[in-house]
Design brief:
The protein is built from 10 helices and 17 strands. The protein is α/β, with parallel strands linked by helices. The protein folds into 2 domains: about 150 residues, Rossmann fold; about 160 residues, Dihydrodipicolinate Reductase, domain 2 (2-Layer Sandwich). The strands form 3 sheets. It has a 9-stranded mixed beta sheet with strand order 16-15-14-13-9-12-11-10-17. Strands 5-4-3-6-7-8 form a 6-stranded parallel beta sheet, sandwiched between helices. Helix 5 links the parallel strand 7 and strand 8. Helix 4 runs parallel beside helix 5, helix 5 packs antiparallel against helix 10 and helix 8 crosses helix 10. The structure holds nicotinamide-adenine-dinucleotide. Nicotinamide-adenine-dinucleotide binds next to helix 1.
């Protein structure tokens, strides 16, 4: 569509061939309310699913018309009709399952976080490369309407030079939907703001350093941090900030983005976070420096859940048929993990962390290896 003199679209781009056989490992919440509705709408071919809880797998297959419930991971990986394995288990189980899928010659869509240790993530990326299979990470916020259209506007020069760019979220999050996340001592950045960090890297490129401050809410029952303030530092005058609070009990909740450049400003809201996981369509407005007081409002149509969830899978299929790399390739995702791990190290050490400090050796978000530079 034409928007303020620029060409934009919030449709999810699909490659010419989309009939790859897909096998799903892990049939929990996100697969049922996001992956499968998105894949059904896009016409993707899910052939089998597996969960360590057989009843969960059976129920998922029934609800979404999946023809086969695999008896084991080996059963699913042994099916030659399955070209792509979509993993959506709890994160600490993902690296070992990914290694088995890679050994079976399958292409992979992994969940975020790719791994909760940086060296595990590096190993997964290296294994996929050696085996000649594609590995994508499900950082689907890049296909969320507001982010996708912002990216197109920025690429066409609508901001001029980006200078002050931020995501600000103050909501009440139902962490009880994920008891294992509520029990994690690394919570907000590892499972939530990782999306904002990835989307902001996608829009503005690689920062050179990260500062982050983490805190809790009085009397919260979640173990880890639920309020974070993170700054991405760039060699230029660009400053990017992410400010998040998951304990806003009031009716003044918000989830907004604001990207201000020398020639324009984009502002909008992340609709999903106004009523998770149903959500609403994002809003996006643009004003040009040359047209003060005039706001152009985009007519967005797609939702983060489920529509954006077709994006990483479509991009993986595109990479398979073109021999290229998925937009959210494992190699690219190491950049997002570096900012995530730098944020944890910064909060623990109380200083700004150059990304060059985040190295392979046994990095964990807050473990023994993070404070030692
Ligand atoms: N927007 C997003 O991108 C988004 C949103 C929510 C969750 N997630 C990610 O998706 C993953 C799953 O989250 P969820 O909300 O569906 O969790 P969930 O707890 O609802 O489901 C996890 C499922 O995986 C199964 N499982 C766990 N370990 C397994 C194993 N070793 N083998 C087979 N099955 C196994 C469990 O039985 C369960 O059914 C997590 O990595 C989470 O971070 C991403």
């Amino acid at each position: 569509m034409d928007f303020a003199g620029y060409t934009v679209s919030d449709a999810i781009p699909l490659p010419p061939k989309t009939d790859y056989g897909i096998g799903i490992i892990g049939c929990g919440g996100i697969v049922n309310y996001a992956h499968l509705p998105a894949y059904n709408a896009a016409g993707f071919r899910v052939l089998a699913c597996y969960d360590r809880d057989p009843e969960t797998a059976e129920r998922t297959a029934r609800q979404h018309g999946i023809p086969h419930v695999a008896a084991s991971i080996d059963d699913l990986l042994g099916d030659p009709a399955i070209a792509i394995v979509d993993i959506a288990v709890t994160p600490w189980d993902q690296p070992a399952i990914a290694a088995r899928a890679i050994a079976a010659g399958k292409h992979l869509l992994c969940q975020k976080p790719l791994a909760d240790r940086y060296d595990d993530a590096m190993r997964m990326v290296a294994l996929a490369k050696q085996a000649g299979v594609k590995l994508a990470v499900n950082q689907q916020m890049r296909w969320d309407a507001g982010i996708q259209v912002s990216r197109q506007l920025i690429a066409q020069g609508a901001l001029g030079v980006p200078a002050d760019c931020r995501i600000e979220v103050s909501i009440r999050t139902p962490w009880q939907m994920w008891p294992w996340i509520a029990a994690s001592d690394h919570l907000e950045i590892m499972y939530h703001s990782i999306h904002y960090q990835d989307a902001l890297r996608f829009l503005f490129g690689e920062p050179e350093a990260v500062t982050s401050m983490h805190s809790r809410w009085p009397d919260q029952i979640e173990v880890g941090e639920t309020r974070t303030l993170t700054v991405f530092h760039f060699p230029s005058d660009l400053r990017v900030t992410i400010d998040v609070n998951h304990h806003n009990w009031s009716d003044d909740a918000y989830a907004r983005f604001r990207f201000l450049g020398t020639e324009g400003i984009i502002t909008g809201t992340l609709g999903l976070l106004y009523d998770y996981p149903t959500g609403r369509v994002d809003t996006l407005a643009y004003q040009s420096h040359s047209e003060p007081l005039t706001w152009h409002e985009a007519a967005l149509t797609t939702h983060w859940i489920p529509d954006a969830f077709a994006g990483p899978m479509a991009s993986l299929m595109d990479a398979i048929q073109t021999g290229g790399e998925p937009v959210t390739s494992g190699a690219d995702n190491l950049g997002t993990l570096r900012t995530v791990f730098a944020a944890y190290r910064s909060a623990a050490a109380g200083r700004t962390i150059p990304l060059s400090e985040i190295v392979a050796k046994g990095d964990t978000p807050g473990g023994d290896h993070l404070g030692d530079g």
